[in-house]
Each structure stands twice: as structure tokens, then as C-alpha cells.
Specification:
Blueprint (H helix, E strand, L loop, with lengths): L2 H4 L2 H14 L6 H6 L31 H5 L7 H4 L2 H14 L17 H11 L11
Bound molecules: iron/sulfur cluster (2 copies).
One iron/sulfur cluster binds next to helix 2 and helix 4.
């Protein structure tokens, strides 16, 4: 039996509380653009996922969050694109069909970060951030 199957509801609730306490979503440009509190944060958590209210992507700071490193995540924008596993499935499907799911992102620039933060984000999110210099 896998580790996740053995996790009790109490353990899951405890883990979610910890992830929420570490989550830096509220400081990110996409969350701030919302202009109000969302119903929840920690969008990367398996029982959370996509926000019901955030739709416009303006940069994702998940790449510098401790949870991101701890979970060895490779995707981003959990508030708009859903949890890591669902994104990986979408990426695999897009690759199978011969096109990139990230193409639409390249249409936007991201000027809300200072160069040092942006460099860190680019490093950790492996190119999934909006590409300022590469418009489609
Ligand atoms: S990885 Fe992103 S969504 Fe998950 S806890 Fe960190 S900032 Fe929040
Ligand atoms: S998941 Fe990423 S884009 Fe969405 S609010 Fe959190 S840090 Fe921002």
C-alpha cells in the first residue's frame, strides 16, 4: 500500500494546516490581482487545486515556496491549472498531440518581480513562468 493510501484524515488535515501556514500565495501578483481574499490558498494541496475565482495569471511565486522544494514540484500556477499531478497529465497529453500547453503564457510579460526574485523563480519553475523576451 502506498504512503498516501495509509494517511488518515487527521494526518491529512494536519498536513494541510502546515501547508497553509507556509504557503506564500497571498504575496504573489496573481493572488494580489484578485483584489480580495480567496476562499482558500495552498492550491497545490491534493484536496484543494484550482481556485474558483482566480483566472488571470500574472506570475507565480510557488517556485520559491518551501513546499515547492519539499514536494519536488516542477509545474506552477496551481490556482489556475490545478494540482501537480493533473498538470503533468495535461503536459503528457499535449506532448502526445504535438503541441505545448505553455504556449499561451509566452504572450505575457511579467514585470512585478525584482530581477533577483525573478531569477530564482525562473530557476525553480523550470521555464513555466511568462517569458518576457519571447512573445509569440
Ligand atoms: S507551492 Fe504554491 S500553492 Fe503550494 S503552498 Fe507553496 S505557494 Fe502555496
Ligand atoms: S498558485 Fe502560484 S500563481 Fe497561484 S496564487 Fe499561488 S503563487 Fe500565485
Amino acid at each position: 500500500m502506498s504512503e498516501s493510501m495509509k494517511t488518515t484524515p487527521e494526518e491529512k488535515a494536519k498536513r494541510l494546516k502546515m501547508v497553509e501556514s507556509v504557503c506564500i500565495c497571498k504575496g504573489c501578483p496573481t493572488y494580489k490581482a484578485l483584489g480580495k481574499e480567496d476562499e482558500y490558498i495552498a492550491y497545490c494541496f491534493p484536496t484543494r487545486g484550482r481556485s474558483n475565482v482566480i483566472s488571470e495569471e500574472k506570475g507565480c511565486t510557488c517556485g520559491v515556496c518551501p513546499i515547492y522544494a519539499q514536494m519536488k514540484f516542477t509545474t506552477a500556477y496551481y490556482c489556475t491549472r490545478d494540482v501537480e499531478m493533473k498538470q503533468k497529465v495535461a503536459i503528457a497529453e499535449a506532448a502526445w498531440k504535438g503541441h505545448s500547453v505553455w504556449d499561451h503564457l509566452r504572450k505575457r510579460s511579467d514585470t512585478d518581480f525584482d530581477p533577483r526574485t525573478r531569477a530564482k523563480m525562473v530557476k525553480h519553475s523550470r521555464g513555466h513562468l511568462p517569458q518576457k523576451d519571447k512573445p509569440l
